[in-house]
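Sample pair:
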Amino acid sequence: MSDTEAKDLLAALDSVQEVKIGDVVKGEVLAFDDSKQAIIGIENAGVEGVVPARELSVKEDELHVGDTLELVVISKIGSDKEGGSYLLSQRRLEARKVWDNIEKKFEAGQTITAPVTQVVKGGLVVDAGVRGFVPASMVSDHFVEDLNQFKGQELEFKIVEIEPSENRLILSRRELVKAERQAKKEAVMAKLVVGDVVEGKVARLTNFGAFIDLGGVDGLVHVSEIAFERVDKPADVLKVGQGVKVKVLAVDADKDRISLSIKQTLPQPWDKVAEEVAEGDVLDGTVKRLTSFGAFVEVFPGVEGLVHISQISHKHIATPNEVLESGQEVKVKVLSVNASDHRLALSIKALQEKPAVEKKEAAPKAEEKVTLPEEETGFTLGDLVGDELKNND
């Protein structure tokens, strides 16, 4: 061997790198075996490695002999005496890069965006390049009953916990949703002006009213402001998700309170009374309330008139509920109309036939004399007549 050849051999030996578990190496695809494993010639190592199909991050039909890959060494196969090779992985190297990137974002306080791939018991599974988990309590800033609505959505998450060695990545949306909701609330409240009519959707119903979503902030329509007619339960006339127009009654930014009205966006029912109702008209109505002094009868939605107790029946009654009950359908005659003051005087008895007056027994005539029993006067009729004659003499 010449000096030149010796130097070349020494240089070649010096360039051979020792392969260690966890190293990132480059290799050329030499062949594929019967198990579809890629046989790799590791660059500058003089040894070979294998990549099982499951450890590839590309499809098998996309990989060809001669392609160069970047791989991570997973373990050694066989002994040095047997000319051992190495188990390599492309997929795990890609995952390592993802973990490194996520760790950098975690340290910088940044968020990540990833699609929700599964809904499992207790939360959501997302694909962040590696498997991430979102506990149900961290999906939103309030309890979410049906998590399936998030499946397939690409969402922003905050990194809560990361442990690459254990493949553990815990994510959360709670604080992000809360911050987003607050920002929307402030933006909406800054634009709201008392007296404005805006559109919203029914978000929640309670016994005392309806909460309306105005696009990031909820306002309350008290049950008394839902309709002109009396509403016992908001659920009787409204449904969750229903679109409504509301008038802004008050805005309290300090307390995050918005008071709204639906009925004040509707036509004023007393305007119809002023245009269509006159004294003497006969209307159909429904008894709504009974009081000690009369009955309130609804003749139009939101329009009630009073039937005074004296106008309920020709017969004397002590209380209206002797002849009427709430919900009863009645006909009434209009006695007077004052639409501007929202007053309507009605009568039920005016439409009823007046009962005939019973004849009283005739009083005794003045000239008729009444004979009283003798034992009560002490005198006979002859005595009374005789005395009268004597007096005439």
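The longest helix spans residues 91-108.
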